[in-house]
Amino acid sequence: MGMSGYLRKRDVIITMTQFEFKQRYRGTALGLIWSLLAPFLLALVLFLVFRNMFSWVENFAAYVLVGVFVFRFFQVATSVGMHTIVGKSHLVTKTNIDRELLPLATTLSYGMSSFLEILVIVPIVHVLGGNVGFTILFLPVIHFVYIIFIFGLNLFLSSLMVYFRDLNQIWEVITNVIFFASPIVYPLTMIPESYREMYMLNPIACIIEIYRGILMENQILLEKFIYFLLISLALTFAGQLFFRRMQKRFGEVL
């Protein structure tokens, strides 16, 4: 389904996304606060553990906070997104709904939550020393591209999960590796300069630095953004082709 197809289905997508968003906080008294608590605590622990080691990093508390919150969207949205077909098998086998809309709605709902979470930390980052300025207006564009990237991943993961039910354990290990392979706690300058260009091919490392550029340095890292945009579009296009091929046997397997 191309962009025109999504636009034709926009009412269905909006309804499904709203439902997913409400389901996430259903039965919780504090709603969004709970989703903020876990990353805040993680950022606090990482700051306390590493603050002496990286005391020379300017505004280290804000540095860690932004890294944790940006990575959280990737970690949570993919771990939930991979179950969108298996977890909604009744919709796949008993309705004519376009199956791509299932991972899309989940990705959009978690994208909305993540955007709200990042907006909440903006004033905190500012208080901690971040240089928040006019480039904050570019934040919705950055986050929209990040959602496209996650959607592309979820197309792969959700279709693979139908055939390989232990994928969630494998993906948990992979996300942990990516966490330590990204500049969340340690500064980018720790990577030897000769390897830094290769290191930044990691899209998660790239998007974290893009967010830090906006929230902490009041600048748009245009070269990194263009790279991440191209990766996101290519990943989503490849994900759509892969998903359509794999979905032919969803009914049989489910």
The percent range for strand residues is under 5%
The major sheet is characterized as: none
- The strand count comes to 0
Whole-number mean pLDDT: 90
What sort of overall outline do the alpha carbons produce when their principal axes are compared?
globular
Order of helices and strands: HHHHHHHHHHHH
Q: Percentage of helical residues? A: over 70%
Count of structural domains: 1
How many helical stretches?
12
The low-confidence parts are none
What are its keywords?
mainly alpha, 12 helices, 0% strand, ABC_2_transport, transport, membrane, cell inner membrane
Secondary-structure map with pairings?
Elements lengths: L2 H6 L1 H16 L6 H19 L9 H22 L7 H6 L6 H27 L11 H25 L3 H14 L12 H7 L3 H15 L4 H25 L3 H4 L1
Helix pairs in contact: 2-6, 3-4, 4-6, 4-7, 4-10, 6-7, 7-11, 10-11
How would you describe what is shown here?
This protein is an all-alpha fold and 254 residues long. The chain has one domain (3-253). It is built from twelve helices and no strands. It has helices at 3-8, 10-25, 32-50, 60-81, 89-94, 101-127, 139-163, 167-180, 193-199, 203-217, 222-246, 250-253. The two termini are 22 Å apart. One of its GO terms (cellular component) is ATP-binding cassette (ABC) transporter complex. Residues 30-246 form the ABC transmembrane type-2 domain. It is a multi-pass membrane protein. InterPro entries: ABC2_TM (IPR013525), ABC2_TM_bact-type (IPR047817), ABC_2_transport (IPR000412). It comes from Archaeoglobus fulgidus (strain ATCC 49558 / DSM 4304 / JCM 9628 / NBRC 100126 / VC-16).
